[in-house]
UniProtKB/TrEMBL annotation:
Gene Ontology biological process terms in this record: 'de novo' pyrimidine nucleobase biosynthetic process; 'de novo' UMP biosynthetic process; glutamine metabolic process; L-arginine biosynthetic process
NCBIfam families assigned to the protein according to its UniProt record, in alphabetical order: CPSaseIIsmall, PRK12838.1
Segments of this protein annotated with the region CPSase: 1-182
Similarity comment text for this entry: Belongs to the CarA family.
Lineage: Bacteria, Bacillati, Actinomycetota, Actinomycetes, Streptosporangiales
Binding locations of L-glutamine: S50, G231, G233, F260, Q263, N301, G303, F304
Single Gene Ontology MF annotation: ATP binding
Name by which UniProt lists this protein: Carbamoyl phosphate synthase small chain
Alphabetical list of PANTHER family matching this protein: CARBAMOYL-PHOSPHATE SYNTHASE SMALL CHAIN, MULTIFUNCTIONAL TRYPTOPHAN BIOSYNTHESIS PROTEIN-RELATED
Pfam families: CPSase_sm_chain (PF00988), GATase (PF00117)
Species: Trebonia kvetii
Length: 402
């Protein structure tokens, strides 16, 4: 509990120092300091491999209420390097709880801190952007901790997918009663358990492959479709995944990408990726489908994004479309034919989805697997199935409907 933990310090690379009580294991954690605005889903957040290398602050003020169970993790371990909460719940109160959040952090060796100032911390990160940081229960001199923060690696250029990926291929089969209709090769760049589960429920037998699989390894599975997963780190440092993506594009096999996978598709077709100031992490991000004008409330966890193509006109129009760069609706040329931006974030205009118009490939920057988060976008898995059925997308934006 916050009142019983050791005196603990959080230091950001700009020198900001917050003092609080240890929450979790004694020790130290270093990483990129980010914040997540989800009111629920801390267990899925902690176990999402995309958080590898990050210290995550929760903006919801009371964390741990429902404890920890063995059904909700998104992977076999906690991946955040450190955890920041305002007030840990004194009780784990749920019929599903098997133990407390703090016991789990301790058991997995994750050092966290409970500090009263999570709101001030979040505002600092919004102003200055994501920063390197450290949490320590053992160092009490901020200047000394700051020195080590400044010597720690940043997120730009970090190749982390190969750290979190599965060492061996494995298969997720459709549940009993669901016929197998497709074989999907899923490149695990940091895959969450909910993703193959959503695919398997739709009749996909999912062969999960290590991050560094080549196009030849992927195509050796004889897939009807290829999936590139979410994952941690800087997409610019994952050239091996970009090369594999290009090989699969050349083969003309249907492709679906989520988050990191979307950034890899973007890079494979010649778009740049860049680091956002503080990213999108939470469960209520509004995303517009540019084909229909429909807005989806979606789950996010990303710090990088695809840059709009240089020919796109990014001047803004009024009212409902205020944050939709008009140029985003214009198809643009790539080495694989024309492509289009399909979705944008209505808070800030960031590209949230792309697709190729001449090849069966599409991707989204947000999380239709919704773990945690709203299920608004779950039909993207049906669109992947439709793409494998027909080689065409089910929604508008298709070649004939431009
Ligand atoms: N969830 C993800 O796949 C994150 C992708 C990438 N590491 C980013 O931060 O943007």
């Amino acid at each position: 509990m916050s009142s019983t933990g050791p005196d603990t310090m959080l230091v950001l690379e700009d020198g900001t120092t917050l003092r609080g009580k240890g929450f979790g294991a004694y020790g130290e954690s270093f990483g990129e300091m980010v914040f997540n605005t989800g009111m629920t889903g801390y267990q899925e957040t902690l176990t999402d491999p995309s958080y590898c290398g990050q210290i995550v602050a929760m903006t919801a003020p009371h964390i741990g209420n429902t404890g920890i169970n063995d059904e909700d993790p998104e992977s076999h371990r906690i991946w955040v390097s450190g955890y920041v909460v305002r007030e840990p719940s004194r009780l784990a109160s749920s019929w599903r709880a098997q133990r407390s959040l703090e016991a789990e952090l301790k058991a997995q060796g994750i050092t966290g801190i409970s500090v009263p100032g999570t709101r001030a911390l979040t505002m600092r990160l919004r102003e200055h952007g994501a920063m390197r940081a450290a949490v320590s229960t053992v160092e009490n001199n901020p200047a000394r901790l700051l020195e080590r923060v400044l010597a720690s690696p940043g997120m730009t250029g970090a190749d982390l997918a190969r750290i979190v990926t599965t060492p061996h291929p494995y298969t997720v089969a459709p549940p009993s009663g669901v016929a197998t209709r497709y074989r999907v090769a899923a490149v695990d760049l940091g895959i969450k358990a909910a993703t193959p589960r959503n695919m398997a429920q739709r009749g996909m037998e999912v062969k999960v492959l290590p991050a560094t699989s080549t196009a030849r390894d992927i195509l050796a599975v004889s897939p009807d479709g290829v999936f590139f997963s979410n994952g941690p780190g800087d997409p610019a440092a994952a050239g091996y995944a970009v090369a594999a993506m290009r090989g699969v594009l050349d083969a003309g096999v249907p492709i679906f990408g989520i988050c990191f996978g979307s950034q890899i598709l973007s890079r494979a077709i010649g778009l740049d990726t860049y680091k956002l100031r503080y990213g999108h992490r939470g469960v209520n991000q509004p995303v517009m489908d540019l084909a229909t004008g429909r807005v989806y409330i979606t789950s996010h966890n990303h710090g990088f994004a695809a840059a709009l193509p240089p020919e796109a006109d990014t001047s803004r129009t009024g009212d409902a479309w205020a944050h939709v760069p008009p140029g985003a609706r214009k198809p643009f040329g790539t080495p694989y034919g024309e492509a289009a931006v399909t979705h944008v974030n209505l808070n800030d205009g960031v590209v949230e989805g792309i697709r190729l118009l001449d090849r069966p490939a599409f991707s989204v920057q947000y999380h239709p697997e919704a773990a945690p988060g709203p299920h608004d976008a779950v039909d993207l898995f049906d669109q992947f199935a439709a793409l494998m059925d027909t080689g065409l997308m089910a929604s508008a934006h298709g070649r004939g409907k431009k």
